[in-house]
């Protein structure tokens, strides 16, 4: 490039450092928020799957909780869509870490160095290395919830997820419901929640969301997405392509694979 930065140019280094510090503080806040989301999701799953009620009864009886679950999924997919389109995040964080370790060697103390200690930086690196970090957090939390609650039939969790996917799909594909959506935000909300529960279902269910025996009408869900303007759904289709577990299994029908090509 025309402008080669001389490593000795302290003014430029300081400028870069001052620009990157607030970004790292923000990345740290989001990482910490993901841990809070994980705990919140676990409590919600406990409430929405506890006996003696069936998933649909739970969703009807505890509509406020179902709405909270939906809000978490909506935030998660919105965050990850932004993350996917911002590759600079990891570069900025690497620059921050390199600068800190170089200054440790030179015994220079920089302000904000105590912002992120080494262990925290390692955890943040792993988090942001994921294509969809928030979704990965929720998938892991759901899987963990199922494995820790041995007495709870796995269907209680997966039925709750498939029921939510069904509700979203029906709302999106039925004209008399759809005409009540006053703005595109409501449509997007519904689509994100639908994709979110599909991905969680696919991580938790032994055969996943794409098999013939799946309780989610995947063809219907993908068709609903494909009817929308591509700029608003490309991120969601990518989430189905790249963050599900079972899409490439032999049990997935060619039709469904073709829809996601």
How does this model look, in words?
- InterPro entries: CYRI (IPR039789), CYRIA/CYRIB_Rac1-bd (IPR009828).
- Pfam families: CYRIA-B_Rac1-bd.
- Belongs to the CYRI family.
- There is one protein chain.
- With 261 residues, the chain is mainly alpha-helical.
- The protein has one domain.
- The chain is 72% helix and 0% strand.
- It contains 12 helices and no strands.
Instruction: Determine the mean pLDDT.
Output: 89
Radius of gyration using CA atoms only: 22 Å
The number of distinct helices, counting runs of at least 4 residues, comes to 12
Q: How many β-strand stretches? A: 0
Gap between N and C termini, in Å? 38 Å
The portion of residues assigned to helices is over 70%
Overall 3D geometry? elongated
The largest sheet, given as strand count, sense and whether it forms a barrel, is:
none
Count of distinct structural domains: 1
Beta content: under 5%
Structural class: mainly alpha
Series of secondary-structure elements, N-terminal to C-terminal: HHHHHHHHHHHH
| Uncertain ranges | none
């Amino acid at each position: 490039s025309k402008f080669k930065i001389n490593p000795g140019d302290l003014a430029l280094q300081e400028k870069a450092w001052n620009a990157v510090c607030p970004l790292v503080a923000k990345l740290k806040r989001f990482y910490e928020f993901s841990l809070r989301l994980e705990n919140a999701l676990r409590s919600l799953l406990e409430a929405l799957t506890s006996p003696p009620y069936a998933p649909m009864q739970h969703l009807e009886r505890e509509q406020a909780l179902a709405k909270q679950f939906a809000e978490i999924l909506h935030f998660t997919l919105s965050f990850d869509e932004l993350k996917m389109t911002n590759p600079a995040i990891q570069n900025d964080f690497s620059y921050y870490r390199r600068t800190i370790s170089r200054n440790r060697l030179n015994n220079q103390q920089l302000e904000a160095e105590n912002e992120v200690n080494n262990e925290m930086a390692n955890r943040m690196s792993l988090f942001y290395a994921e294509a969809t970090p928030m979704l990965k957090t929720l998938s892991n939390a759901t899987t963990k919830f199922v494995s820790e609650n041995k007495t709870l039939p796995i269907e209680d969790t997966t039925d709750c997820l498939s029921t939510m996917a069904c509700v979203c799909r029906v709302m999106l594909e039925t004209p008399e419901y759809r005409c009540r959506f006053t703005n595109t935000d409501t449509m997007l909300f519904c689509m994100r929640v639908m994709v979110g529960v599909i991905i969680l279902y696919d991580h938790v269910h032994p055969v996943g969301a794409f098999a013939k025996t799946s309780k989610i009408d995947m063809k219907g869900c993908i068709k609903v997405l494909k009817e929308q303007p591509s700029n608003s759904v490309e991120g969601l289709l990518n989430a189905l392509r790249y963050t599900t577990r079972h899409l490439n299994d032999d049990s997935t029908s060619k039709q469904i694979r073709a829809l996601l090509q």
